[in-house]
Amino acid sequence: MQLELSGAQQTIVESTRRLAATTLAPTTAARARAHEIPREVMLAIARAGLIGVNLDKKWGGAQAGVVAYAAAVRELAYADPAVAVTMAVTNMVAEVIAAFGSEEQKISYLPKLARGDFFAGAFALSEPGAGSDAASLTTRAVPDRDGFVLSGEKLWISHGDQSDVVIVWARTGGPGAKGITCFIVEKGAQGLSAGKPEEKMGIVASHTVPLSLDQVRVPKAARLGAEGDGFKLAMVALDGGRIGVAAQALGIGCRALDLAKARLQALERAGAGAGAGQAAQFALADMAVELDAAWLLVLRAAWLKERKRPFSREAAMAKVFASEAANRAVRAAIDLCGTGALVGDSEASRLLRDCRVTQIYEGTSEVQRLVIARDVLRQGVLS
Ligand code: CAA
């Protein structure tokens, strides 16, 4: 068993850490105030090889694998979780196209995504009446002479207004999972419109919008995967996406741990005694243990995915544990830092706001527990 990153993986961690420290961290608060990620930021991310981290070089990707991807997401999220989620969702979109797309679709979209010609890619699955129960979605795709006509409403779509390519799930058949098919819709398609970005609690630099599809006509070639395979395709993509959200949560959690560490060291310097007392040190230790345990879960899920082995249960475990551990870490950091952490535009309060959604998007903690429990019941306890 090998628990060390390879040289190539370590290089990605170091270069992403440098990029995050220089290009992101100094302006994270400004992006949050502006509720905007500038185009140049996403371009810098792409130029660093971070869109398509796990994509073949032939498509312009870095072909660095899933472990490197998870490590890169954690580094970006440490500096700016809003940029990290934009990068992670766009990687997920690129990977879905790479895994299920036709040759033409891959040629049309993958190099542009990887190069940063596109601001981002969006994943339009959720609807006003279909969040956790994704199989109940009602957007329809009706066959037309030379394609399909898509109509319906999508909700909570990350950067759906800024994305040049949107993957849309729609019903082509009867009710339930088997009636769903996946389509690629391009920005500017007639009938596709985005609503106003939601006023969110956190991750505010990243837009989250409703998308409306009013008789959007797409050619047959826009279908992604086979008819009726859309739900499975979404589940496969989300298994991978959950590794990204887990890593994002850990970036936030590690930043919180660093704030707590700095606070304890400052108290020590001010003469409050070693580590400002045992209670504070124990709290710091618990944060470190949980974040580290969560990181090992993330690495295992990423390692399995990289080897093309089943990893749904492991990704769900990583996501539920990492997002909950990170939220506990942020709260503990605020307790250690005191009321100063909660006034004005403090970083600790931003972390608190940014962290919460990691327990919700790409499947709530309850959905992860469902995935884990079903797999334990089916496969047994030892994976
Ligand atoms: N891989 C491959 N196939 C899978 C699968 C997986 N991980 N999970 C399920 N399937 C298949 C099943 O085998 C089944 O196929 P068969 O009938 O042929 O056996 C079919 O899909 C239906 O599966 P289920 O019966 O398990 O489906 P379900 O309706 O009970 O749903 C669920 C299960 C786990 C709750 C699922 O609905 C789910 O994951 N919901 C959460 C949705 C979600 O995560 N949304 C996030 C939105 S995107 C987002 O947040 C991005 C962002 O912007 C940040």
For the largest beta-sheet, the strand count, sense and barrel status come to:
4 strands, mixed
Distance linking N and C termini: 16 Å
Q: How do the SSEs run, as a string of H and E?
A: HHHHHHEEEEEEEEHHHHH
Structural class: alpha+beta
* CATH domain class name of the largest domain: Mainly Alpha
The set of bound ligands, ions and cofactors reads: acetoacetyl-coenzyme A
Q: What is the radius of gyration computed over CA atoms, rounded to a whole number of angstroms? A: 21 Å
The main sheet orders its strands as: 1-4-5-8
Strand percent estimate: 5-15%
Indicate the percent of residues in helices: 40-55%
CATH level-3 fold name of the largest domain:
Butyryl-CoA Dehydrogenase, subunit A, domain 3
Task: Categorize the overall geometry.
Answer: globular
What attributes characterize this protein structure?
Butyryl-Coa Dehydrogenase, subunit A, domain 1; alpha+beta; binds acetoacetyl-coenzyme A; single chain; Butyryl-CoA Dehydrogenase, subunit A, domain 3; 383 residues; four-stranded mixed sheet; Butyryl-CoA Dehydrogenase, subunit A, domain 2; 11 helices; 3 domains; four-stranded antiparallel sheet
Structure, briefly:
This protein is α+β, with helices and mostly antiparallel strands. It contains eleven helices and eight strands. The strands form two sheets. The chain has a four-stranded mixed β-sheet with strand order 1-4-5-8, with helices on one face. A four-stranded antiparallel β-sheet has the order 2-3-7-6, with helices on one face.
Can you give a write-up of this model?
This protein has 383 residues and is α+β, with helices and mostly antiparallel strands. It has three domains: 113 residues, Butyryl-Coa Dehydrogenase, subunit A, domain 1 (Orthogonal Bundle); 107 residues, Butyryl-CoA Dehydrogenase, subunit A, domain 2, CATH 2.40.110; 144 residues, Butyryl-CoA Dehydrogenase, subunit A, domain 3 (Up-down Bundle). It has eleven helices and eight strands. The radius of gyration is 21 Å and the shape is globular. The two termini are 16 Å apart. Acetoacetyl-coenzyme A (CAA) binds next to α5, α7 and α11.
